[in-house]
Every structure is written in C-alpha cells, then in structure tokens.
Design goal:
With 245 residues, the chain is an alpha+beta fold. The chain folds into 2 domains: 95 residues, Alpha-Beta Plaits, CATH 3.30.70.580; 137 residues, Pseudouridine synthase I, catalytic domain, C-terminal subdomain (Alpha-Beta Plaits, 2-Layer Sandwich), CATH 3.30.70.660. 23% of the residues lie in helices and 31% in strands. The protein is built from 5 helices and 10 strands. Strands 1, 2, 3, 4, 5, 6, 7, 8, 9 and 10 form a 10-stranded mixed β-sheet that branches. Helix 3 runs parallel beside helix 5.
C-alpha cells in the first residue's frame, strides 16, 4: 500500500458537509467513491478537517492508501476523472510516509471568510459570499478582533453540539481587510471548535454594523456563555483555506 497526501478544492454548496453520511451527498463520500472506483475495492479517505454543510475549501488536505502502483500525478488525474461532475478538484497528490496523518499531523489551519456589504442581491457569487445590505466598518472590527487573539475559553463561540474535550483554543491570527468590493476575514490556528469561525465572524460583524462595541465583544468572550454569541455567519462565505504540516 502507498499513502498519498491529497490537496483538495471544493464547492460545498451541494454537500451535507465533509464527513460521510448515509444517504447524504458529502465531500468525503464522493472522494471515497472515486478512490474505490480507481482501486476497484472499497477505500477510505481521511481529511484534515470536517467542514459543515455549505462550507467550501481552497486547500483541504486528506490522505488515502492505494494498493495500485501509480505515480502521484496519475492518482490526481484518475481521482478527478472518477469524481465526474462533483464540484471537487484534487489539486495535488504527493506520496508520503506510511505514518502521515492528514488530521493529526497538522500544525496550523487557516480559514477565509468572504463578506460583501452592498444592498443589491448577489447574482454571480450567490452561495459563495455573505451579503450584508449595509456598510460594515472594517476598522472597528479589526480593532475589536484583537481581544480574541491568543489562548481563551471560547465557549461563547462554540456550537452547543461541539464534541471537543475542551473549549480552550489559541487563535494565532485574525486579519480583516477590504479586497475590492469584499471584506475578507482571515483566521489562523492549530485547531478550532465547531462553528467557531462562523460564530466569531458574525459577532465581529455585529461590531462592524454598530450593534456592538469592542467592549461588548470582550464581555461576550469573558462570559463563556453560548447565549452571548452574536449571529452565526452563514456557511456560504467560509472557506478552509490551507492546512500546514
């Protein structure tokens, strides 16, 4: 058996998330079907992170073990062939050591959240960016975001169904900037709680539209109370950007 590291891009819109589910279309399930068609036996694919329904990826990473003696570029092209019309693309395949683990060996994951503040509805980017009908103050959000950096108990920004053993996480980076007509939120950390990025983004937008101040955000964090979270940003604008090893 040869282990391959896969770098994957996908549009999460038609999928019920990354993780395989019975009778539901998922990214993992689609990749496993493609790998099984290539190998002609059932094959499992293991991802670096589990994205929710509707969340996209620019650089998800997974690993797969294959019995056939194939070059890495052949694996990439064959998987893309068997994926067919699924909005999933294997960007790269690399042969790695047998003990490489896409999830457990990762030391940093980055997420991008895209927001556009305009009144007209979306035509071309529907399902890929969050539209706010009012102007959002980037500088106010950037200043408020500083209270979230570092190690904290992120219970307020943790989904009630989160299965992590602890609410403690360390956010290494939050950057917020205007990129053309959009506002981009960039997050960097080793790991995240369930819906943490979307919860933080929605709360920062509360600051950006004037509903909250920096003090309100800090108090919400310190409360360690899920009911103090702002609105959870929709899945549309969230992208797993990269995974580092």
């Amino acid at each position: 058996m040869t282990r391959f590291k896969l770098t994957i891009e996908y549009d999460g819109t038609p999928f019920s998330g990354w993780q395989r589910q019975d009778n539901q279309p998922t990214v993992q399930g689609s990749l496993e079907q493609a790998a099984s068609a290539l190998e002609e036996v059932p094959v499992q694919v293991f991802g670096a992170g589990r994205t929710d329904a509707g969340v996209h990826a620019l650089g998800q990473v997974a690993h797969v073990d294959l019995a056939k003696d194939l070059r890495a570029d052949t694996v990439r092209d064959a998987l893309n062939h068997h994926l067919g019309a699924n909005p999933i693309s294997v960007l790269d395949a690399q042969q790695v050591d047998d003990d490489f683990e896409a999830r457990f060996d990762a030391i940093r994951r980055t997420y991008l959240y895209r927001l556009i503040d305009r009144r007209p509805p979306l035509a071309l980017e529907r399902g890929r960016v969050w539209r706010m009908p009012q102007i959002v103050d980037v500088e106010a959000m950037r200043e408020a975001a500083q209270v979230l950096l570092g190690a904290h108990d992120f219970t307020t920004f943790r989904d009630v169904q989160c299965q992590a053993n602890t609410p403690m996480r360390t956010l290494d980076e939050i950057s917020i900037s205007r990129v053309g007509a959009e506002i981009h939120f960039f997050y960097g950390a080793r790991s995240y709680l369930h819906r943490q990025v979307r919860s933080i983004t929605g709360s920062l937008v509360n600051v950006g539209v004037g509903r909250w101040t920096k003090v309100d955000l800090k108090q919400a964090l310190q409360a360690c109370d899920r009911s103090r979270c702002g609105p959870v940003a929709p899945a549309d604008g969230l992208y797993l950007n990269s995974v580092h090893y």
